[in-house]
Amino acid sequence: MPKIVIYPNKVLRKKTNLVEKLDSKTKKDIAGLIVCLSKADDGAGLAGPQIGVLKRILALKNKGTKMVTVYINPKIDKVYGNRGFFTIETEGESEDFLEGCLSFPNYFGTVRRFSKIDLSWQEEKGSKLVGKRASLEGFEAIVMQHEIDHLDGVLFIDYIKSEGGKFYKAVEGELVEWDILSI
Question: Which among 91, 140, 147, 174 is annotated as catalytic?
Fold first, then answer.
């Protein structure tokens, strides 16, 4: 079974290749992606490069379930509004939404994302690739943008560095503000 690649592994900076056919190797890569994401309790999504696979495949956990959906050759077709930082409401208080990444254990940060996107991708149906389309909003849109960035060799720390987001490290169960340039 593949393992999740941890930064600064160079494979995380590589661009991925389109999946043109579903051969046995690609099906095995997809199965590995599903297993790794399913075992990651804190993970919402996982992209091919994060398990060392340079193919345009990613997987997202379905909201509120353990089920995983695989997206082959995903592409953002349209974005809505401006990229911005997100907040979440808890007990009447508003706090920053912190993005994390399985390839950056214990690190989190604020990243500007679009709140709604239109997406096209392909799914496996037998041995064929079938086209799909959907609109994603909120958390799902954020996760999809994060995972598609992985397919292009872009990491969430790149946005934090270039756009001045906040960056934290979990230390003994507490989030501590951290110097982004230290990683």
Answer: 147
